[in-house]
Specification:
Shape: globular
Number of helices: 0
CATH class: Mainly Beta
Distance between the termini: 29 Å
Structural class: little secondary structure
CATH architecture: 3 Solenoid
Number of strands: 0
Radius of gyration: 10 Å
Length: 71
């Protein structure tokens, strides 16, 4: 399976519940206000992403690169 590449995408306010974004390239993505409930982000690169106001219930960031990410 190919990884997701959303480099610098603006998907603020999106409903991404239960999406599989594992090993994705989400650098500098704007996810402010998005619903990420139950999203699989394992191994994703979230460097400099904006997650301000996002609903991240049940999301684990343990194996993600979150350098400079705004929560």
């Amino acid at each position: 399976m190919r990884s997701i590449g959303l480099l610098e995408a603006n998907i603020s306010g999106a409903l991404l519940a239960r999406a599989n974004l594992s090993d994705g390239d989400l650098r500098r993505v704007n996810l402010s206000g998005a619903s990420l409930v139950g999203v699989n982000l394992s191994g994703s690169n979230l460097a400099m992403a904006n997650l301000t106001g996002a609903n991240t219930q049940g999301v684990s960031f343990d194996t993600c690169n979150t350098y400079g990410t705004k929560f």
